[in-house]
Fold this sequence. Notes:
Elements: H1 2-9, H2 33-66, H3 69-80, H4 84-106, H5 112-125, H6 130-137, H7 139-152, H8 154-170, E1 179-181, E2 187-189, H9 195-203, H10 205-213, H11 221-225, H12 237-245, H13 247-273, H14 281-299, H15 315-319, H16 324-341, H17 347-368, H18 376-386, H19 395-403, H20 405-409, H21 420-423, H22 441-468, H23 472-479, H24 482-490, H25 496-500, E3 502-504, E4 510-513, H26 517-525, H27 530-565, H28 569-585, H29 593-601
Antiparallel strand pairs: 1-2, 3-4
Amino acid sequence: KEIVQLFIDTLPETSFAxxxxxxxxxxxxxxxxxxxxxxxxxxxxxxxxxxxxGKIIQDIEKQIDDxxxxxxxxxxxxxxxxxxxxxxxxxxxxKKELLQRGSFARNPPSEPLFKKANQFAFIYTIGFxxxxxIVNLSQVPLFVMPYLxxxxxxxxxxxxxxxxxxxxxxxxxxxxxxxxxxxxxxYVVRSDIxxxxxxxxxxxxxxxxxxSKRGLLTTSFLKDALGLDESGRxxxxxxxxxxxSAFFFNHGERFNRQTTILAGYKLELAKxxxxxxxxxxxxxxxxxxxxxxxxxxTNGGAVLETAPALTQKGIGRVAFMYKSYGLQxxxxxxxxxxTMMDTDMNAEERKIAAKQLAGVHGTALFFAGVHGVPLxxxxxxxxxxxxxxxxxxxxxxxxxxxxxxxxxxxxPAMSGIDPSNRIRLTGLLLQENKFDRNSDLEGLIGFHLGxxxxxxxxxxxxxAKDLYNGELMRGTESLLPAGVANMMKATPFIGRIxxxxxxxxxxGDIIYDDVNVLESAGQFLGFAPTGYMLEQERNNIIKxxxxxxxxxxxxxxxxxxxAKRMGDFDGVRDVxxxxxxxxxxxxxxxxxxxxxxxxxxx
Length: 602
């Protein structure tokens, strides 16, 4: 009886045999027929697609598993002159990686807690935030333009990107809406679209069909990473809020990817076609593949399966929530640098790679200033580590004093609105916590592993604390998502900036006043004024130096006490010499005989 009961219990709820099971005072059905349609249609559709595509992926995995490195090694050896041992090792690594990704695609982990953590973080950081979508759109001129321009020419690239952007806009950010499907499943341009657009959409039809088949046109990577595409069965309140808050960002990402794919296809097709009137089917296919590859390298993937393995599951999914883009950008730049320096590559490819790197540094300089170029971060770390002391100006301060704020932060910041910190190609993976320079190792690890979720949770706690202390406006702003808080802060007459007459510290000191209309509009969208950011950064640097001076002073006094207590007269003499040097450098914190006497008594 127990075996039969176990069999019945494990049957699907739609099974005939399960209908004989004794009822247990549980509601037998849901009266809402729409809920039944939503649940059953989603389940049946998902199971059908998983069966179909799971079989496809398994077939590919079998081909990978059966593949031999011998043929690949011989081919690679003849092309680049590498030894077969090195080729075999690389082949094995790639084979292992592909099999792992196939397994992940067929059986993605559920991980509801990590998804909810990311949804919470998204709502409180990028959600409802128009500035995030604007920053996302900067990807095309910042990275795509120099990447394609170096290969196809800047004049041709500018024209192609402009035309492609207009096509995506005409299609309301969904180029698939301009096509119908015939009986064979192929795309055909709709007959009811304007005549002047038909030729353009017919030209790009092959790449649209290929990109659509790979899910690259209307899919957003962040939407997939947040698990919103997995919630069709029954959406929670968190799913709905996340989806609504991601509207601007998702559309920005879709616009970038569609524009990049279409522009790359048109440029590559023109290159392959040359002076001929029409392109062959093979040329169209090759151009479509090249365009999709270039879109991947300049925009990143559209689904979680193509993200770096470190970011796909577990704590890495939380810690690297917004850093897949950074990993992709650094990978593309390192790969380009390797191509430029690789003597086994042909001269033309090395030249293109050099132009790409130069172009990316040029656009980064324009949009984010000197502190936004990729190599700036490396120089900054080396200077602060090897040259500057804790009580000296850091690399940022030295640079901005030398070249001025305009060159330091780029052309957009000269308008009075500062987007440079969010556009720059420096610090895409590891950022310094500017508001907690003295955090211990545990705090540093938590800051990076906790990712946006931890910072968002701390923001909510800070808001609750502010409300408890009677700071209603600050507390309310902290409890609201950043996008909504920015709008609230900059609203005329009732926002904190208007009420307080500018930006003030918690103590009531003026940080930046005389905020003009453009700066208020920028804050409403999510961009802080350039002047305010300058004052904040300057005050933070001064505070850091003051803290370092105070810490050094205390350390010297402690060393003096220990040396004297232990009878180490040589040590006492050395510490006295350091004290004199310290006092000459920092007269406002000079160590006097009275200071030493007072310290010794304490």
